[in-house]
Structure formats: structure tokens, C-alpha cells
Write a structure and sequence with these properties.
Rossmann fold; 16 helices; globular; binds nicotinamide-adenine-dinucleotide; binds magnesium ion
Length: 391
């Protein structure tokens, strides 16, 4: 039970989720207080956020920017820390109630493990944490009595559909996908799409990594794995449907055949606010959905022979062990290489598939095994990219 304002640590406050979370917190300053802000390299924005929200601690990941941040905040009672290890220290601070994991990629794993061990409520945007190590995170959260509240819009939708249904088994869930900017494209068309085209998402404005993942359907693949862990589902209980308008955020079907959906305009502030305010729905002035603005809501099957990443993610889920950790690490390198114009759009799936085929499979990995798998997969994937560029 939180008494007084909920005290929040935001990991990745300068990103798309982080900045929207700060908007939500500003609008509800009577309910929330920011205790920790962190960023990897955007020192200027971190400094201005710190001056506006007066957290007790800020962390700049890039140690070369420590002096800049420290000097800019020296007139304020704010402790400035640097480096990725510091994330693990700030999340365990006594006063923190909720840790919002709004940082991108594998970097979310270790601070989240530390936060759960310290019994902090997790508002989870960083889906990669569950993709990499869901088998470790979910039992740990249960053991510690910690709630993991999804921020990802699809998972928030399912979580909302399940409220009041804890005694009713789920038959299946349906995750909706916008289809991204290349919906309907053939492999031939995908071969020459550019970074700039891939970065233009039709419905959502997000960080670069998740935007590329959305264009390649890897985002939906990661979300399938995330959902399996969050809601305790088998692979055959998870379906994906393309819904280009992004109004229905996902659905649950129960054993009587009844389906529940959660709807709204595509706006991440809603699931962010829901997770931070849980179990209460807080008032908002977000624009409302109006049927008169949408003549039709449409649905189509995802094309998994063209967008292979979705199939690869289902494969990783059914294989279990460290396979999704391998998929994630290879994908992070693939997206980075695509963003640097080192490989093409289709090669991202080639690299992930190759990494999954060649990686060392471990059926029951420990935390150390996940760390090692991530490291090794990255090295091999980097070499793949180098070799590809020499061809
Ligand atoms: P982003 O790139 O906009 O922001 C990432 C944040 O993390 C920044 O503050 C950055 O400084 C920090 N960061 C980056 N690398 C880091 C590292 N190695 N160590 C520590 N901090 C680091 O990303 P985003 O779009 O806000 O996404 C954040 C997470 O939320 C991702 O896991 C993404 O999949 C998930 N998510 C995002 C959205 C969205 O609408 N943006 C929706 C659903 C889920
Ligand atoms: Mg999502």
C-alpha cells in the first residue's frame, strides 16, 4: 500500500515512453512524485527534466557526460550518478515505490531483476526483459510478491480485459498489429526499402528501435513472447491479427467463447497512466475515440512468409530455454546495423535466423547464462554483419 504520493523511478526518461510518462506525471502531480530520472546519452534533456521535476537522483549512462550533468545540476539537491551499474543502485532505494522500465533493449534486464528483488512494483515498458528472461522474471516476481504492470498497449489491453476474471481461464488472446509502414509489401519490395521509410510508422511515434521492429513485425514477435510470460499462456493460445487502424488494442477470448477487447485512440499515455495509477483509473483529457471518425475497423492475417520475424519469434517461444535471448540479441544487432545502413531490411531476418540456428542452446539457463548468451550472440552477430559487408 502506497501512502501519499507514489514515488517513481523512470529508467529511460528521455525516450518516447519516458517523456510521455513525465507528461502524465505532470498532469497528476498531486498523486505522483519523480524520484529517479535516467538517460543513456541525451544529457541536455536529462538536465532540463531534472530541473523541472527535482528528483533525488539522476543517472547518465554515458560516463563521458557525467561532468556536464553534474555541473548543470550543482545548485540543486540532486545526486548525479553515471554508468549502467548505477541503474541497479537507484532502483533499490528505499523510497522508490514504482520502477517504470522505459529504457530500450537488453539493458533493461539487470535493473529490473534488482528492482524485483527489492520488492518494487514494475511498470514494464521494456518488453525485452521478458523476452530475454521471462522464465526467470515471472517466478521471481511471484516469489517477491511484486506486480508487473504492462505498459505495452496490447498487454495493457489484455490486462484490462482480465480485470475481474482471475478465476476464469483464458482460451486464447489476440494481439493486434498495425502492420507497420510496409503492410502488403512483397519480399521484392522489402529488399530495397530504406531506413527513412522504415522509421515512418503510420500510427505511433516511438523510439527508433521499436519503430524498426514494428516495420519488420519483430515487435509483434517480441510481444507474443512477452504475452506468453505475462499471462502464463502456451504458444497455441496466442494469435496475431493485423488491424491497421490500431483502435482495438488486443482481445481475450474465454472458455465460453466470449471475447473482450480494449479500445481507444492510439496514444501510449493511456497505458502508461493506467500502469502508474493502477488499480485506479485516473481522469484524463486525452482525445476520445469517436465512431463517426472511423467508417470501418478492418482486420487481416499477417503475412509471415514475407515478414519472417514473427515466425522466428514463435519458433523461439516454442523452443524455450535461451532461444528468445538469442533472438533478441541478434535482433538488436540487426536493427542497429540496418539503422547504420550496413545491412538491408531482409537481412535483419537472415541474421536472426542464422543466430538462432548456430547459437548454443541451453534448456534451463540461469541469469549468468542469459548474460553470457547475450554477449556471445552479439559478438557473433557483429561478425556476421562485418562478413556481410565484405561480400
Ligand atoms: P527510446 O529509444 O525513445 O528511449 C529509450 C530510453 O532508454 C532513452 O531515455 C535512452 O536514453 C535510454 N537508453 C537507451 N539505451 C540505453 C542503455 N543501453 N542503457 C540505459 N538506458 C538506455 O525508446 P522507447 O520507444 O521509449 O521504448 C522504450 C521501451 O518501451 C522499449 O523496450 C520499447 O519496446 C517499449 N515500448 C515502447 C513503446 C513506444 O510507444 N515508444 C510502446 C510499447 C513499448
Ligand atoms: Mg505494443
Amino acid at each position: 500500500m502506497v501512502v501519499g504520493k507514489k514515488k517513481i523511478a523512470i529508467l529511460g526518461s528521455t525516450g518516447s515512453i519516458g517523456t510521455q510518462a513525465l507528461e502524465v506525471i505532470s498532469a497528476h502531480s498531486e498523486d505522483f512524485q519523480v524520484l529517479v530520472l535516467t538517460a543513456q546519452s541525451n544529457a541536455d534533456l536529462l538536465i532540463s527534466q531534472a530541473r523541472a521535476f527535482l528528483p533525488s537522483h539522476v543517472v547518465i549512462g554515458d560516463e563521458a557526460k557525467f561532468i556536464q550533468v553534474k555541473q548543470a545540476l550543482q545548485d540543486l539537491p540532486i545526486e548525479v550518478l553515471a554508468g549502467s551499474k548505477s541503474l541497479e543502485d537507484v532502483v533499490v532505494m528505499e523510497e522508490v515505490d514504482v520502477v517504470l522500465t522505459a529504457l530500450v533493449g537488453y539493458a533493461g534486464l539487470l535493473p529490473t531483476v534488482k528492482a524485483i528483488r527489492a520488492k518494487k512494483t514494475i511498470a514494464l515498458a521494456n518488453k525485452e526483459t521478458l523476452v530475454v528472461a521471462g522464465a526467470l522474471i515471472m517466478p521471481l516476481a511471484k516469489e517477491m510478491g511484486v506486480s508487473i504492470l504492462p505498459v505495452d498497449s496490447e498487454h495493457s489491453a489484455i490486462f484490462q480485459c482480465l480485470m475481474g476474471e482471475s478465476h476464469n481461464p483464458i482460451e486464447k488472446i489476440i494481439l493486434t498489429a498495425s502492420g507497420g509502414p510496409f503492410r502488403g509489401f512483397s519480399r521484392e519490395q522489402l529488399r530495397c526499402v530504406t531506413r527513412a521509410q522504415a522509421l515512418k510508422h503510420p500510427n505511433w511515434t516511438m523510439g527508433a528501435k521499436i519503430t524498426i521492429d514494428s516495420a519488420s513485425l519483430m515487435n509483434k514477435g517480441l510481444e507474443v513472447i512477452e504475452a506468453a510470460w505475462l499471462f502464463g499462456l502456451e504458444q497455441h493460445q496466442i494469435e496475431v491479427i493485423v488491424h491497421p487502424q490500431s483502435i482495438i488494442h488486443s482481445l481475450v477470448q474465454f472458455e465460453d467463447g466470449s471475447m473482450k477487447a480494449q479500445m481507444g485512440l492510439p496514444d501510449m499515455k493511456l497505458p502508461i497512466q493506467f500502469a502508474l495509477g493502477y488499480p485506479n483509473r485516473m481522469r484524463s483529457d486525452f482525445p476520445r475515440f469517436d465512431f463517426r471518425d472511423f467508417g470501418q475497423l478492418t482486420f487481416e492475417q499477417p503475412d509471415i512468409s514475407t515478414f519472417r520475424n514473427l515466425g522466428l519469434a514463435f519458433d523461439a517461444l516454442s523452443k524455450g530455454g535461451n532461444m528468445a535471448c538469442i533472438l533478441n540479441a541478434a535482433n538488436e544487432i540487426a536493427v542497429d546495423a540496418f539503422l547504420k545502413d550496413q545491412i538491408g531490411f531482409l537481412e535483419m531476418s537472415d541474421l536472426v535466423e542464422d543466430s538462432m540456428a548456430k547459437g548454443t542452446f541451453l534448456a534451463q539457463p540461469s541469469l549468468e547464462d542469459y548474460i553470457e548468451t547475450d554477449k556471445l550472440t552479439r559478438v557473433n552477430a557483429q561478425n556476421w554483419v562485418k562478413t556481410y559487408n565484405k561480400r
